[in-house]
Amino acid sequence: MAVRFEYEYQDENGQWWRAYGNENWEFDENGLMRKRFASINDLAINEIDKKLF
After folding, report:
1. Residues 5, 20: contact at Cβ < 8 Å?
2. What pLDDT digit, counting tens, does each position of 8-47 carry?
3. Which member of 9, 24, 32, 40 has the lowest number of beta carbons within 10 Å of its beta carbon?
């Protein structure tokens, strides 16, 4: 299964970040995640530039 994601968060210093990327998940025959491959990028943003609320 492949997923694309984007989320925003604020760190302990008050800096806002946007994280985005892709993940590939592999599951075993019982439906449990066997492998997770992630490519994640973090971008510093200003609060006014937030897209997600």
Report:
1. yes
2. 999 999 999 999 999 999 999 999 999 999 999 999 999 9
3. 32
Q: What angle do CA 12, 16, 18 make, to 5 degrees?
A: 125
DSSP category for residue 14: S
Contact 42, 23 (CB under 8 A): no
| Dihedrals phi, psi of 49, to nearest 5 degrees | -90, 5
Per CATH, the number for 2-49 is: 2.10.70
Q: What pTM value is reported for the model?
A: 0.71
Whole-angstrom Cα distance, residue 22 to residue 41?
Answer: 9
The one-character DSSP state at 50 is -
